[in-house]
Amino acid sequence: MLNLVMFGLSLIAALGTAFLAGPTMSGETESGIALAVLARPVRRSAVLLGKWLGLVVFGSGFVAVAGLAQLLIVWTTTGYWPPHPVTGLALLAGQAAALLTLGLLLSTAVSSMASGIVAVGLFGATWIAGVVGGVGQALDNDSVARVGTVSRMLLPTDGLWRGAMNSFQDPTLLTQFSEAFKGHPFLSATGLTPTYAGWAAVWVSLVLALAAVAFQRRDL
Questions:
Q1: What's any one GO cellular component for it (predicted)?
Q2: What is the C-alpha separation between 38 and 91, in angstroms, rounded?
C-alpha cells in the first residue's frame, strides 16, 4: 500500500517539476524576461544552472515534506514503517530531478507547454516499459525484458522509482511471492545498484550540459 501511495507522490512531483521547468527557459524567452536578465554580464549557462538548482531544491523539498507526511499517515493507520525511508525519498527526489532536467532541455527548443507534455509523456512511457520488462523477466522472455532495461537506460526515472519501491517495501514480501513478483508494477525485487545510481547522475549531467549548449545557441 505504501508503494502505491508513494507512486502517487512521485507522479505529482514529476508533473509539477516537468511543467515548472518549461516556463523556466521557454516562457521567459517568449515573454522577453530572459533578454532583461541576459543584458547583464552573466553567462547563459550560469543562468540556466541557477534555475536548475532552484528547481532541484524546490522539487527535493516537496518530496521530503510530502513524503514524510505520507509515511507518517501510513504509520499511524497501519503501524508500518519502511526499512529505508531516507533512501527511498532521496531516490524519489532524484527521479524528479531527472525529469525536470529533461524538461529544461526541451524548454530550450519548444514551448513551455509542449516541453512539459513531452517530458511527462516520456515519464509515463518509461514506467509502462518498465512494467513490460518486469513481465518479460517473470516469463523468462529476454526480448520483452530488454524493453525495460533499455528504457531505464534512456530515461532513468523508472529505475530510480523501482529502487525507491524496494526501499519502502517490507523485505519479507520477497519470500511471499513467486516469480511473478518480478512483473508487479508496485513491488521491486531488487534495490538500486551503485552502478545504476552513477549512471543516473551521469545522465542528468549530460542532459543539463546539452540544455546549456542549446540555450547558449538559441536566438533570443
A1: plasma membrane
A2: 34
**C-alpha span between 216 and 59 (Å, rounded):** 25
CA–CA dist 99, 163 (Å, integer): 16
User: Taking Cα atoms as reference points, which of 210, 11, 31 lies closest to residue 106?
Assistant: 210
Distance CA 190, CA 61 (A): 26
pLDDT of 12 higher than 90: no
Asked if 163 and 200 touch (Cβ cutoff 8 Å), the reply is no
Report the b/e string of 3-32 with b at 16+ CB within 10 A: bebbbebbeebbbbbbbbbbbbbbbbbeee
Helix then strand then coil, in percent of the chain rounded to 5, is 80, 0, 20
> Cα angle at 209 between 203 and 214, to 5 degrees?
125
Q: Which band of pLDDT confidence, cut at 50, 70 and 90, is reported for residue 208?
A: very high
The pLDDT of residue 28 is above 90? no
Note if the pTM is more than 0.70.
yes
Cell numbers placing 185: 508494477
What's the Cα-to-Cα distance from 45 to each of 11, 42, 74, 207, 218, rounded to whole Å? 29, 9, 42, 13, 12
List the grid coordinates of 26: 521557454
| Per-domain residue ranges of the chain | 2-217
Phi, psi of 195 (to 5 degrees): -65, -45
